């Protein structure tokens, strides 16, 4: 995923500060708070930042990103496994039909 230069700037500011609120971010970027909130919303949607209960924004920890990635992978693989199980059961049924047919 490639970020726009502006979102890269926002991310850089957050990294350098460690934690920042939207008002201070807007001041540093020289934009309105509404615009800063838009940047924050987009970076949050991408899973790169998070905000606490009082609105401070910080970089999302790699551990949390990794846990989310693993969870998504598990979901994908569970779906694939269930699909394969269904296919195996269908093949078993087909095999049983063939065995019965050959016994007659």
TrEMBL record:
Record keywords, A-Z: Coiled coil
Transmembrane segments: none
Coiled coil: 74-101
Gene3D superfamilies: Winged helix-like DNA-binding domain superfamily/Winged helix DNA-binding domain
Residues covered by the HTH arsR-type domain: 1-82
Signal peptide region: none
InterPro entries per the UniProt record, alphabetical: HTH_11, HTH_ArsR_DNA-bd_dom, WH-like_DNA-bd_sf, WH_DNA-bd_sf
Superkingdom of the organism of origin: Archaea
PROSITE patterns for this protein: HTH_ARSR_2 (PS50987)
A GO molecular-function descriptor: DNA-binding transcription factor activity
Protein name as annotated: Winged helix-turn-helix domain-containing protein
């Amino acid at each position: 995923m490639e970020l726009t230069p502006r979102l890269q700037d926002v991310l850089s500011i957050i990294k350098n500060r460690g934690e920042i609120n939207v008002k201070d971010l807007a001041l540093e970027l020289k934009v309105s708070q509404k615009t800063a909130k838009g940047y924050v919303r987009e970076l949050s949607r991408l899973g790169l930042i998070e905000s606490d209960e009082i609105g401070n924004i910080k970089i999302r920890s790699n551990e949390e990103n990794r846990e989310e990635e693993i969870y998504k992978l598990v979901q994908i693989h569970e779906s694939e496994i269930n699909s394969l199980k269904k296919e195996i059961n269908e093949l078993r049924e087909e095999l049983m039909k063939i065995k019965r047919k050959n016994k007659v």
